[in-house]
Design goal:
This protein has one domain. The chain is 88% helix and 0% strand. It is built from 8 helices and no strands. It is rod-shaped, with a radius of gyration of 29 Å. The N terminus is likely disordered.
Length: 240
């Protein structure tokens, strides 16, 4: 019944030539305007996070491909200093950050502790680096999840306010026609639509970026294990 009333109200507004954003904004209550403002702020914030994550992930992927190709040769030749320099030139690569930390820990511990302790020190350094890079990759994603889950309820609050205003219109005009409720119903529909418009892209982006982060985690874990195996082989072979 409410859906039929809403459609009828919107048709009435269109037929009366009142369907434009400026007129609707002017007819909105202060609470409804506040709801719309909050939703626009949430939308702008989520869009900023999306752009920032896309740029970061794209740069990480691009530099990681370059880094893996360059560092492989340096490690085969046992040139750890050169490998660290290559990692520092690719600071946006998630793999480079992890490898640089592992190599630095291995070098600093090699001359100070026993063989097995060197490997353990390198492992601890790699674990810390993976955790730090993981946190960097996830920055802002919790906000997207929060926006995706709460924006519909913010819009629903505006919907309730609009329905209340529609009934107030009936009470004040002592009329029961659609003209008495059209303003309140249109206000309710706009806030509902905006809430969904903000929430749906945020949820999509959160799921997409979460999958990306999981893929980066797998790559970092694999790189860490390969580097540990390299350290074990290097120590076993008596390379200094």
């Amino acid at each position: 019944m409410l859906a039929n009333l809403s459609v009828a109200a919107m048709n009435l507004i269109i037929l009366q030539g009142q369907w434009d954003l400026r007129t609707m904004w002017g007819n909105m209550s202060i609470i409804a305007k506040a709801v719309v403002g909050i939703l626009f702020l949430l939308s702008a914030w989520s869009l900023g996070v999306m752009i920032d994550r896309v740029l970061m992930y794209s740069a990480a992927r691009k530099q990681s491909r370059v880094f893996v190709q360059q560092v492989a040769g340096a490690l085969r030749e046992g040139k750890l200093d050169e490998a660290i320099s290559i990692a520092e030139r690719n600071k946006k690569s998630h793999i480079a950050k992890v490898v640089a930390t592992g190599l630095s820990e291995f070098q600093s511990a090699s001359s100070q502790v026993a063989d097995m302790e060197v490997i353990e020190a390198a492992k601890r350094g790699l674990d810390r680096s993976v955790a730090i890079v993981h946190a960097e990759m996830k920055r802002g994603l919790s906000g997207l999840a929060t926006i995706g889950s709460t924006a519909p309820f913010v819009g629903l609050f505006g919907t309730v306010v609009g329905i209340i205003n529609a009934f107030k219109g009936i009470e004040s005009t002592k009329a029961t026609g659609l003209s008495a409720v059209a303003g309140g119903i249109s206000e309710a529909l706009v806030t509902t639509a905006l809430g969904l418009l903000v929430a749906v892209p945020a949820v999509w982006a959160y799921n997409y970026f979460t999958n990306k982060v999981e893929a980066f985690d797998v790559e970092m874990d694999n790189s860490s294990m390969e580097l540990v195996n390299y350290f074990i082989t290097r120590r076993a072979g008596g390379k200094k």
